[in-house]
Amino acid sequence: MVALQVHVLLIPSLMSIMGAAQYMMQDAALLSYIDQRFLSLEKRLEKCNRDALDYVDEFREFSKAVLSRLAGLSTSEAEVQGELQNLLTRLEHAQRDIDYLGSIPDSNACVEVHEDLLKQQLLEEAEEKKRLKLMLNASCDHVLAGIRSLKVVKKTGGKHGSWMKDPGKKHSKIYLLSGSVNNVILEFANIMAFTENNQTLKARRVPLPLPWEGTGHVIYQGFLFYHRHGSLNEILKVNIQRRNLAGQMLLQGAGRIPAYQLSPQTKIDLAVDEQGLWALHAEPETGGNIVISKINAEAMAVEHSWDTPCSSQGAEAAFMACNTLHVVYNSPSGGSSRIQCVYDVLDALNAYLNPGVHFPKRQGGHSTVHYNPKEKQLFAWGDGSQIVYKLHTEQK
Question: In this entry, which stretches build a coiled coil (predicted)?
């Protein structure tokens, strides 16, 4: 009986405990479900963030591409406008030509006009050639046939420099200009004083108002003509005795590239021959070919210029002799120098590119090669040596 009573009393308690356990299991399942949903939401949010970042990167790249295309369209628009303007100009010229042709009664008039223009052009060319011959005196009747010998007079100074006599003066003074940038000339009484061992002690020092650049300077009629250091194309004229500036000029088109590829320190090379002062340089517009300019030494102005077929590529120096340009070529390592291009300003049709005149008995390069019209010799500077070359000439 007692056991039955206990059993009756335990049944409600067990039922209550089982109900509580059931509720707890349901709560745990609910919490697990909620946790899974939160994890799923977090993953989706993370994916959304990644997608948003990818979209931002793609938009940035798209923006850059759009801006680049817009810039290209602006450039294209400017080019199109330029082409349209050019086309309008050409149309205007064509319209004027059509109006002009329409005003001519027949084709015979065209022929007459063209013949008159041709005659006028030939007349102008003849007058120009006559003027040039008068300007250059046309007194040269010989051509260079070869270089007979050389004499190394002295070895002093560095790789770059120049030395010379004044062909416009009767004295026998020697001038030494050492280096590609300097402002002091050494003047010697004669060649004997120059060749002595202590020659620099006996030399007269001539300071210049402004330094020179390159090695293409010349002394003519008591004046030094040189390319001013630090300038693009300014040529100065200095009185050697008074040591003052006597003139200056700008040589248009010069100074942007070296006159000779193998002598890059020289942008403008000045020269003297029987006709006076010249300037030699190269221009990008001529494809690097050498340009000759005849200079009025008194007025410091260009009288005439010639574009030559002689290239500055592979050239180391050049000189003028009897109205004629002679370009000296060599190898970059310094081999046998040779004159490989000749151009006569009064007879351009007979310019030739391979005369085959070689410098004798010497291997190496030249910093300068200058012609002395009074002595008919070349004064050259080669690797620190001062050299004289004797010339062999023939009648034209």
Answer: none
Residues 6 or more apart in contact with residue 120 via CB below 8 angstroms:
none
- In sequence order, which residues have a C-beta less than 8 Å from that of residue 137 and are 6 or more positions away? 274, 275
Q: Which residues of 27-48 are buried (b: 16+ CB within 10 A; e: fewer)?
A: eeeeeeeeeeeeeeeeeeeeee
- The rounded distance, in Å, linking the Cα atoms of 265 and 216 is 9
Sign of dihedral through CA atoms 123, 125, 130, 134?
positive
Rounded CA separation 125/129 (Å): 6
* Predicted local distance difference test score (pLDDT) of residue 361: 74
Span 11-35, pLDDT tens digits: 666 566 666 666 677 777 777 788 7
In order of their start, the domains of the chain are: 142-395 (2.40.128.630)
Element (H, E) at 188: strand 181-188
Token pair recorded at residue 308: 């030559």
Residue 292 has pLDDT above 70, yes or no: yes
CA dihedral sign, ordered 22, 27, 32, 36: positive
d(CA 289, CA 309): 6
Confidence at residue 184, expressed as pLDDT on a 0 to 100 scale: 96
